[in-house]
Structure to design on (716 residues):
């Protein structure tokens, strides 16, 4: 669950003397059959970060990627002896190895960066979880099949139900289950407007060069544009803000020209 | 659990001396059992009890009658319906040689609860249980058990048993279970939830078979951030649906400190009736005991197991299906389940293993405590050897698998004291000298403590 605490460092001491391992693996579920929309966004965000920071990695598809993850969040990055997950974990690991994208920011910009990342996590992250698991149409026609795809009968039936229960409990503690789809839709719209205003006519959120926030936002927006849910066109919301679309195209062209 | 109450009963060689001084050999006194009465039956059905007393009618002499009466008594006790069983043998009025046997039984209550302690593989556990014995009057029972182990093992079981009796001594049971099994030697934890159907019968005397089906949803989880990646990458959910056949031939005279007899145990498991795992697994154990002069007993034991994945699917099994070797119950002088491939501090297990042991058991020296508390102790000297690795004995590489299994085997010798706890468990305190090992093996040179049921 993307919450504020997820932005805090996990309690591992990284050995900063060792450089970034060239054979690092980004472990993700099988993209063609398993990956769900919120997972796809998180994976793409992490890939964007790694590409922007020019850290070498290979993508490895594993059916049990979620369970391999230390906190059951995606994606998982294995770098030497370390296994970290989510964009935050990867950012911290990179930082320990001396690679960071936001060093040039001043203190107030850094606070901004953190605030916006938390906003994107809390609104877009939970909204995608909400649509994938709480919306009956989407669950029945999309989520259920993908969540069970890695297993044979009977887990093919049990696992989607089991995961749904877990996710809904999480959403419930954040009071998200009481909202209607329209409310969530509206909330996404507000968040996108805020992002669009912050971005303005700049290339990246903090000016000339991309930061962790750019990677994170790209992951969500690009996924929303390219992954149609059965009954929702989240992409249309993004398309209301031409500067966000332009931003996505720019990041994709600049940092994903070979890998996508 | 069927606690082995194998008390050997000898035919009484009784010679009665009536008051007039003339002795009567009870072996020659003719007897005709005319009537067997069981007092105290209320909800237990007659037909269920009467099959246990049939053999009384075959008694011909008085000694035979006394012997059979006590055999039947223990049979009645084993039915699990009675709290206690008393015998009265009386003459019958109708004919001169006629006898009547009367059993006074007290039925156990409708609800039995209790707190017990249990011993497993080097861990103790607390069992909270309740039982509904003899529900329908023919020995049917339901058990509910919750076990908390010292290694933070946890398990809950709900079992329904229906004895079928007959000459095969069969019974059928269904169990629902939920286990949490942490494996600290490999830093993972398995949660499994499922059902077990078991059909048990005896095909010959002392040859017991269990035919089982097990369906279990297993969730393997790395138990900490320090868990090595080789173990972590196996985490996840899987459903195992397997058929299992267990055959136990036990001709030993005592389950813990046998002095003669052979034990053979074969376990075959086929996993792959649906579900996510597919393998065949064999495990076998052979133990022979040879009595020697001066109350010495020579014991030889051999175990062998192999797991063969069944297809090329990427996840046909996980680490919890594999074999582990080492520790005070198998190859002494090494850490618990530590042998074979390792990654960091985690044992990775193996697809095949063998282990053997030769023990020389002696009573306590100088006849100390003989016939009393000394029966709870044995001293022993042992030699242990074994090996485990990842070869799965496919037909193509059979010879090579064999060689790798024999090459680089681990071995140790030592002396120690074994203590029997009841009829089931045992404690061993050994001084071990591992003398064949490989680099990276975790040795226990010196004192090693073992606690458990199954010892090699």
């Amino acid at each position: 669950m993307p919450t504020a605490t997820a932005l805090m460092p996990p309690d591992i001491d990284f050995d900063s003397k060792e450089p970034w391992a060239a054979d690092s693996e980004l472990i993700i579920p099988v993209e063609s059959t398993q990956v769900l929309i919120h997972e796809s966004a998180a994976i793409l965000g992490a890939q964007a970060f790694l590409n922007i920071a020019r850290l070498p990695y290979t993508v490895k598809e594993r059916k049990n990627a979620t369970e391999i993850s230390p906190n059951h969040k995606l994606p998982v990055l294995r770098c030497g002896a370390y296994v970290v997950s989510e964009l935050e974990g990867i950012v911290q690991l990179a930082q320990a190895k001396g690679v960071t994208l936001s060093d040039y920011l001043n203190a107030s910009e850094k606070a901004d960066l953190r605030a916006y990342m938390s906003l994107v996590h809390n609104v877009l992250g939970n909204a995608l979880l909400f649509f994938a698991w709480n919306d009956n149409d989407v669950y029945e026609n999309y989520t259920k099949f993908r969540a069970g795809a890695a297993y044979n009968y009977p887990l093919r039936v049990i696992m989607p139900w089991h995961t749904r229960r877990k996710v809904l409990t999480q959403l419930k503690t954040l009071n998200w289950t009481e909202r209607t789809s329209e409310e969530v839709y509206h909330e996404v719209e507000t968040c996108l407007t805020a992002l669009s205003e912050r971005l303005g006519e700049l290339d990246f959120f903090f000016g000339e060069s991309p930061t962790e926030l750019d990677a994170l936002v790209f992951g969500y927006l690009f996924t929303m544009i390219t992954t149609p849910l059965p009954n929702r066109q989240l992409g249309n919301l993004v398309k209301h803000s031409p500067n966000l679309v332009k931003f996505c195209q720019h990041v994709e062209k600049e940092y994903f020209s070979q890998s996508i | 659990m069927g606690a082995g109450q194998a008390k050997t009963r000898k035919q009484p060689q009784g010679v009665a001396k009536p008051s007039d001084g003339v002795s009567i050999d009870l072996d020659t006194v003719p007897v005709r059992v005319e009537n067997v009465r069981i007092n105290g039956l209320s909800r237990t059905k007659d037909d269920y009890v009467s099959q246990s007393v049939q053999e009384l009618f075959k008694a011909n002499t008085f000694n035979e009658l006394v012997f059979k009466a006590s055999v039947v008594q223990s049979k009645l006790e084993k039915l699990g319906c009675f709290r206690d069983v008393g015998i009265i043998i009386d003459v019958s009025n109708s004919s001169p040689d006629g006898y009547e046997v009367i059993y006074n039984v007290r039925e156990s209550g409708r609800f039995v609860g209790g707190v017990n302690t249990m011993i497993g593989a080097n861990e103790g556990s607390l069992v909270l249980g309740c039982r509904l014995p003899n529900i329908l009057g023919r020995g049917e029972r339901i058990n509910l058990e919750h076990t908390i182990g010292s290694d933070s093992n946890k398990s809950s079981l709900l079992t329904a048993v229906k004895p079928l009796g007959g000459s095969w001594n069969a019974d059928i049971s269904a169990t629902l279970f939920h286990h949490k099994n942490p494996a600290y030697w490999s830093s993972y934890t398995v949660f499994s939830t499922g059902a077990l159907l078991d059909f048990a019968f005896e095909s010959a005397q002392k040859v017991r078979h269990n035919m089982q089906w097990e369906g279990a949803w297993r969730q393997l989880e790395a138990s900490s951030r320090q868990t090595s990646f080789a173990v972590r990458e196996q985490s996840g959910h899987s459903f195992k649906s397997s058929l299992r056949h267990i055959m136990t031939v036990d001709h030993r005279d005592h389950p813990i400190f046998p002095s003669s007899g052979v034990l053979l145990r074969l376990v075959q498991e086929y996993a792959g009736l649906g579900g996510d795992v597919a393998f065949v697994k064999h495990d076998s154990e052979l133990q022979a005991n040879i009595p020697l002069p001066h109350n010495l007993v020579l014991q030889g034991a051999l175990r062998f197991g192999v797991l063969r994945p069944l297809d090329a699917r990427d996840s046909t099994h996980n680490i919890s299906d594999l074999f582990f070797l080492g520790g005070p119950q198998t190859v002494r002088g090494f850490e618990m389940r530590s042998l074979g491939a390792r990654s960091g501090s985690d044992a990775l297990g193996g697809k095949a293993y063998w282990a053997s042991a030769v023990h020389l058991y002696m009573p306590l020296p100088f006849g100390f405590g003989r016939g009393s508390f000394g029966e709870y102790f044995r001293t022993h000297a042992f030699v242990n050897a074994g090996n485990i690795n990842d070869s799965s004995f496919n037909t193509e590489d059979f010879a090579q698998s064999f060689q790798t299994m024999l090459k680089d085997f681990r071995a140790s010798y030592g002396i120690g004291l074994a203590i029997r706890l009841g009829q089931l468990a045992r404690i061993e305190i050994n001084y071990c000298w591992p003398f064949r090992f490989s680099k990276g093996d975790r040795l226990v040179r010196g004192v090693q403590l073992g606690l458990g049921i199954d010892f090699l």
Observations:
- Helices of chain B lie at 46-53, 62-78, 229-232, 398-406.
- Residues 62-78 of chain B form the longest helix (17 residues).
